[in-house]
Amino acid sequence: MNRLAACVVLAASIAIPGCADLRPITAADVLDYASKPYDKGSHGAPRQVLGSLNEVAVVVEFVCSDLCPMNTVRIIHLDVETGERCADAGGVERTVIVPVAITSREKSFCFPEVLAQNWSTYIR
């Protein structure tokens, strides 16, 4: 397990009251994590915290439905507050297809800018 993956597991196991308490990560850390394949069958908790990128929490969600684990989608996004604009948090809003029951639908997320700029290397 690489160091960043270990931190994800550790961060997911701790109750984190605020972003100031999160481990700072860089855009390069986010891109490195997002560019590595993952085992869809053993992704762990459905929501994990990578750390804080520019004082905004970076969250990883493993979205799955009836056809788990083969249709699992890994969504790495900024955890923006309700009513906050994605761009104000340093992100780019994108719509992706996620599994829902036996079908799928489009859902918008606030992705870190580094992922939007390197979309082809992001392994969802």
Biggest sheet: strand arrangement? 1-2-3
Biggest β-sheet strands, sense, barrel: 3 strands, antiparallel
Per DSSP, what share of the residues sits in E-state strands of 2 or more residues? 25-35%
How many domains, as an integer? 1
Counted by DSSP, the helix tally is: 3
Helix and strand succession?
Answer: HHEEEEEH
| Averaged pLDDT | 83
Fraction in helix: 10-25%
Ends apart, CA distance between termini: 19 Å
Shape: globular
Low-confidence runs (pLDDT<50, min 5 residues)? Answer: 1-17
Explain what you see.
This protein is an alpha+beta fold and 124 residues long. It has one domain (3-121). Helix content is 19%, strand content 33%. It contains three helices and five strands. The strands form two sheets. A three-stranded antiparallel sheet has the order 1-2-3. Strands 4-5 form a two-stranded antiparallel ribbon. The radius of gyration is 14 Å and the shape is globular. The chain starts with a helix and ends in a 7-residue tail after the last helix. Residues 1-17 have low confidence and may be disordered.
Features:
disordered N terminus; 5 strands; globular; 124 residues; 3 helices; alpha+beta; 3-stranded antiparallel β-sheet; single chain; two-stranded antiparallel ribbon
